[in-house]
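User: Hey, quick favor. My workstation is busy. Could you predict this chain's structure for me?
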Amino acid sequence: MDTMRDRFIATTSRLLDEDARLAVVLAEISRDGFDGAHRGHPDRVINVGIREQLLLGVGGGMALAGMRPVMHTFASFLVERPFEQVKLDFGHQDVGGVLVSAGASYDWPAGGFTHMSPGDVALLDTLEGWTVHVPGHPDEAESLIRHAVAGDDRVYVRLSLQSNAQGLDVDGARLLRVREGHAGVFVAVGPMLDNVLAATEGLDVTVLYATTVRPFDGEALRAAVAGARASDVVLVEPYLAGTSTTAANDALADVAHRILGLGVSREELRRYGSLDEHLAAQGLDAQTLRERISGFLGRGR
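Assistant: No problem, here it is.
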């Protein structure tokens, strides 16, 4: 199976042929993948080199000129390093664009902490007007990229090497209900779905699937909680733990409830290891999730 990043490159290269306003801005990362697109559209596939602030500045200028820029590099270099340009060149100027990241929270542990970005979604939460997509499969990545490129708003698409076994029919807005139950509600974000389904196997709980986390689909969460005997909510996100807890609390402001936010810890793991080892160390593998979930649900009885 191809990766989400592979699918992003192939999909966006095709979209460049279809949409004359579309442009791709790179900072070396994935440059080789866009070689063919650059030959076909040398004026709309721009590589600025390892200059991430310039990456956002060029994209912002294109947006002001009426183009639809897609800017791409590792998440830590796309959101964190040039955050001032994200805030000013897009938010303050009130123009749209699409940020497409690679690397997720720790996809390439050998790259060290400079290439890890568990706080990217939380950082974008400090700004207004950003839609955030977190696909869990290459098919979903393609659908959400097409959805993002077709609009005029500000969109962040967070890609990962971690993938669920199957893609679902996502629409860029709603939480999908993938399991029905009555003893609690789980929200699995993007590539966390398979582990959450394995961790909750045999439990009488509802599992909702989120590939669009901003705006947060509070209506679907409220409906799921209303249909359950227990108003216990567990959020499992592939980035900083608790990132969506405030959004879920806001959706349930007039409902007595408990929330457990699971995700990546603020504590830095000073080891390289592998992606699977980082998942286990963060307690996001299926077995550890089961233990943490069971403890939380048990305390609520």
